Amino acid sequence: MIESETAVRRQLSNTYRYLHDHGLTEQASGNISARCNDHILISPGGAGGPDICADAFVRIDLEGQVKCGGTPSSEILMHLAIYRAKSEAMAVVHTHSSACVGLACCRKPIPGFHYLIGSFGGVDIPCADYACFGSRALADNVVDSLENRYACLLANHGAIAWGRSLDQAVLFAHRIEILAEQYLAACQAGEPVLLTLAEFRDYWRTAKTLKYG
């Protein structure tokens, strides 16, 4: 299906504001992108949520060459690596949300303490190994961690999620922050009890039947 670039740009602009308003990309600390036919539209470097406009998004090809617009986000390699690795990926959302950053600094995955962890594709949400932002090494680490997953933490950095639509990518980006907050709260209350693989399999069967999650 041929999508209107104008419509995709508008969706991205609205999404960036939503992420900013919900505290997921404060102080220009995140970036988003979406496929648009045979190109990618990505937020520009240093973009701020409240004032980003649809025309500000940069059109690039899958090799990272700018086709229209200014300077793309410094995390262009990470976005492109996901699109190349996952042909079904239609959008990518990278955030520096507080709870995710806190857990990412511990360099540990979010374990299966809640059944919604299973909505990301497995029994945990992994943490990609550290590498400098904007680097090819970070892009490679992220692709490795996203095998069979819709999102992961980035060690000492933040979180990233992808989706088969922009709405799904945003849902996962917001959900991982909510789960990170809940996991931290559970750890303060005691030692969280983790679900078993059998319990996750039951969740996946039920979610598929009910089209849930």
UniProtKB/TrEMBL annotation:
Keywords: Lyase, Metal-binding. It comes from Hoeflea prorocentri. SUPFAM superfamilies: AraD/HMP-PK domain-like. The keyword DNA repair does not apply. GO terms for biological process: pentose catabolic process. GO terms for cellular component: cytosol. InterPro entries: Aldolase_class_II_sugar_metab, Aldolase_II/adducin_N, Aldolase_II/adducin_N_sf. Pfam families: Aldolase_II. GO terms for molecular function: aldehyde-lyase activity; metal ion binding. Residues 10-184 form the Class II aldolase/adducin N-terminal domain. This is Class II aldolase/adducin family protein.
